[in-house]
Amino acid sequence: MTDRPASPAVAAPSEDNPIETLQSLLLGVPPPLTPLDVSAVDGFICAVLLQPNTVAPEKWLPHVADVEGRPLPAGFDAGALHARVLQRAADVRTALASRQWFDPWIFELDDADATPSESVLPWLAGFVMALELFPALLRVDDDRLLEPLALLYLHFDAADLEDADALLALIETLEPPADLAEAVQDVVRSLMLIADVVQPRPPRPPARRAAARGRRAPRR
Predict the structure, then answer these.
(1) Distance between CA 177 and CA 185 in Å, rounded?
(2) Alpha carbon 13 to its chain's center
(3) 147 in a domain, yes or no?
(4) What's the rounded Cα separation, in Å, for the pair 133 and 64?
(5) Which end of the chain has fewer CB within 10 Å, C or N?
(6) What percent of the chain has pLDDT over 70?
(7) Total of domains in the chain
């Protein structure tokens, strides 16, 4: 899960390229720990942030450096790694809270024959891993979650989705994305729809209207 990723489907460069920097830090995690891939880290973060109740960083951060959440080896300083991950989490949290588009770290595979689903699966692996560790989101009883979850889970083989009849029935009605750009759009849309259910924004106060009584028409 630590192979170097291909080019991102949607570029998200900065002065030092946070994606490459984070991936380098992940590759520096010593064995026997097994860190997530940078794309899986992003999916993991998104699922953690969409929980109905806040999950403290000390509960989920250990699973970035090791899928099993094992303690870090003596002498290994994960400060830079954790700082990068928390910065990404802060950026994603801001985007989700404001319902603003952001670029998920989903990468286009080098294989010319790769399907959009194959490119999304590494990100989705991290997303699903977080849901297995923190299942509160899946326990929310709201039919509005079916559509966004179907848009995500359609990338899996139907045989892997056991005991999910309602989800499978909805997936069968959906057209798979035509290309990776459409798949990425569906991912972001799904995250926003989930946020609408589990983290609804407070209604905006009504705009105040100027009182008509007592106002004089301007003189000409």
Answers:
(1) 9
(2) 18
(3) yes
(4) 12
(5) C
(6) 85
(7) 1
